[in-house]
Design a protein that fits this description.
The complex is a heterodimer of chains A (323) and B (275). With 323 residues, chain A is an all-alpha fold. Chain A has a domain of 164 residues: MetI-like fold (Orthogonal Bundle), CATH 1.10.3720.10. Chain A contains 15 helices and no strands. Chain A is globular and about 75 Å long. The two termini of chain A are 26 Å apart. Chain B is of the alpha/beta class and 275 residues long. Chain B contains nine helices and ten strands. In chain B, strand 4 and strand 5 form a beta hairpin. Chain B is globular, with a radius of gyration of 19 Å. Classes of the chains: A mainly alpha (323), B alpha/beta (275). The structure holds adenosine-5'-triphosphate (ATP) and magnesium ion. Magnesium ion (MG) binds next to helix 2 of chain B.
């Protein structure tokens, strides 16, 4: 599935829009390998056909090549994962190495892996809950950053004066590492949770502002002239010219921002405490549960990947200029 | 109606588009560029005027002044007795680079203009109105396509439909067929004449094509080369309408005018604009 979602965002076009005829394009899109193999299997097993037509692979050499290609893109990463795991296991089994190997990790932390939704009170929850609490904070900070960031981006993209005034400030603020904001936030809000949300907000907002303003400034003169001559104003200008024209830039900003937000939440939670994957990792470290840390870190990576893919997918659906 | 008012209307119609003493300067200081120097041009209501001149002489600049996309440095531009101060629906533009909004369908692109003309009418009425203009340029079968799925000629036709849908008083065409091949260009010209014969709009068209200018126009305005370009010559085209290509070749004026135009263009520029 990953490579499916990657394709459209690489070309910057939604394949549906590229050809217009949705069915045609959909059938051209690479299907996941499993379904392709299944169709081959059914073709080969249910064969009330004469033997002469049996060699199906020669039927369409291009198709078999495609299947082989797809199989490789799935199998090769698995091979790589296997070898990484193998070397890790070998390294960990060495004399005096503290890092637990993959087998030890899975066996010792099996309770954590198998029961993500256990709930034994506020201080002992499964990984699912921990991630959900973190995602909730990210969701709040990120949504806020998206709304404020897009609006600010439009403002400085549209007004040369606002750009001149605010751009230098933004350029300084955006280089400040996320965690440097935390003490300020704690001092201001006096509470852990709003502070973590604020750190996410302040981390995610800069790429959104900057990309949106660039997108607004780069609205082609032709479209601006169309809007002027044919009197597109107010909300019609906003929805028919400005937003679609800047959308690819806005979504680029949103995608960079979600990655940065997820990077920041783990660090922020380590310092603020409470339920959340960041503090869970920190807590595991304090109680020397190394295998729990490894499992958590793995989940953090998977969730980060999923977030990036989701935003990329949305971007490929809406974020194209269509030309 | 009083005598004075009638006189006023007649005067406005004679100089429906009134460009007088226009100078246009771009930039400032060292990069200052004197694009137009003392342009005077009057276009009567319902007249079709073409503007020919070498590349970069300032044709688009002049057209944009009438459109209101640009303001003259000195001098004035008025349409129907009103000073031009901003773009408006009374002056629709067909842009050189079709300039359709790529995320909208053919119908939606035309609706952009219709919605502005009839903001108070209901959706059904506006859709029908837009369809009418899509039909007019023979794109009925393609209403729901996006510009990327259209050929160059079809895109230009959508641009023309959009301009007519604005129901303007003046139509401003900036090399509308410049990007098309000779064959498509010919049929587009035919289409434009038929549409124009039906509802005689005042038209100001920029072109590089001498034959196109003669075929379509009542008058042809020749511009001198920049910097400080101005109107060098105005050629009348007294060929009766409706015109057809075959009849044109027979017409005694045709070859004469064509020769005059080519003579001027080849004489003033190193590039032949007739190519
Ligand atoms: N916004 C601008 N700033 C500075 N100079 C400009 C600007 N717009 C046009 N010019 C200059 O004015 C001159 C006339 O430009 P214009 O676009 O009107 O030419 P044109 O006759 O339409 O040419 P073409 O036939 O190639 O379209 C050119 O030399 C151009 O460089
Ligand atoms: Mg031009």
């Amino acid at each position: 599935m990953i490579m499916n979602t990657e394709k459209p965002s690489e070309t910057g076009k939604s394949p549906l829009k590229a050809n217009g005829n949705g069915h045609q394009v959909l059938s051209e899109r690479p299907k996941p390998m499993v379904t392709s193999l299944k169709t081959v299997m059914t073709k080969m097993t249910s064969k009330p056909r004469p033997a002469a037509i049996l060699p199906i692979p020669t039927e369409d050499p291009e198709r078999t090549a495609r299947i082989r290609d797809r199989a490789r893109t799935f199998i090769m990463p698995l091979v790589a994962i296997f070898f990484v795991g193998l070397f890790w296991e070998i390294y960990s089994s060495g004399q005096g190495v503290v890092l637990p190997g993959p087998i030890k990790t899975i066996t010792e932390s099996w309770k954590l892996i198998a029961h993500p939704w256990f709930d034994n009170g506020p201080n002992d929850k499964g990984l699912g809950w921990q991630l959900l609490f973190s995602l909730q904070r990210v969701g709040m900070g990120y949504s806020l950053a998206a709304v404020v960031g897009v609006l600010m981006g439009i403002l400085i993209g549209k007004s040369a004066m606002a750009f001149k005034a605010l751009d230098p400030i933004f350029q300084v603020l955006r280089t400040i590492p996320p965690l440097a904001w935390l003490p300020i936030a704690l001092a201001t809000f006096n509470q852990a949770n709003p502070s973590a949300v604020f750190v996410i907000f302040i981390t995610a907002i800069w790429p959104i502002i900057i990309n949106t303003s660039v997108g607004i400034m780069r609205i082609p003169v032709e479209y601006e002239n169309v809007a002027k001559v044919y009197q597109l104003r107010g909300s019609r200008y906003f929805f028919k010219v400005m937003l679609p024209s800047a959308a690819p830039y806005i979504f680029t900003g949103l995608r960079i921002a979600i990655g940065m937000a997820w990077l920041a939440i783990v660090a922020a939670e380590m310092l603020t405490g409470g339920v959340g994957i960041g503090f869970f990792i920190w807590d595991s470290w304090n109680s020397s549960r190394l295998t729990d840390i490894i499992v958590s870190v793995f989940y953090v990576g998977m969730v980060g990947l999923a977030l990036d893919r989701i935003v990329a997918k949305i971007a490929s659906l809406f974020g194209t200029r269509g030309d | 109606m009083s005598e004075a008012m009638n006189d006023q209307i007649a005067e406005n119609e004679a100089k429906f588009v009134d460009i007088s003493g226009v100078h246009k300067l771009f930039g400032s200081g060292k990069s200052r560029y004197h694009a137009l120097a003392g342009v005077d041009l009057r276009i009567a209501k319902g007249e079709f005027v073409s503007i020919i001149g070498h590349s970069g002489c300032g044709k688009s600049t002049l057209l944009n002044l009438v459109a209101g996309l640009n303001m003259p440095t000195t001098g004035s531009v008025a349409v129907n007795g009103k000073e031009v101060s901003a773009p408006g629906l009374d002056r629709a533009v067909v842009f050189q680079s079709h300039s359709l909004l790529p995320w909208l369908t053919v119908l939606e692109n035309v609706l952009v203009a219709v919605d502005s003309v009839y903001p108070d009418k209901d959706k059904k009425f506006r859709m029908e109105e837009a369809r009418k203009y899509v039909d007019m340029v023979h794109l009925t079968a393609h209403v729901n396509k996006k510009p990327a799925q259209l050929s160059g000629g079809m895109k230009q036709r959508v641009g023309i439909a959009r301009a007519f849908a604005a129901d303007p008083q003046v139509l401003l065409l900036d090399e509308p067929f410049g990007a098309l091949d000779a064959l498509t260009r010919g049929s587009m010209q035919d289409e434009l004449t038929t549409i124009w014969e039906k509802n005689r709009k005042t038209v100001m068209m920029i072109t590089h094509d001498v034959d196109e200018a003669v075929f379509l126009s009542d008058r042809i305005v020749l511009m001198s080369n920049g910097p400080a370009a101005t109107i060098a010559k105005v050629v009348e085209v007294p060929i009766p309408r409706p015109r057809t290509r075959e009849a044109l070749l027979e017409d005694s004026h045709y070859l004469e005018i064509r020769k005059e135009l080519l003579h001027y263009l080849i004489g003033t520029g190193m590039h032949s604009a007739a190519a």
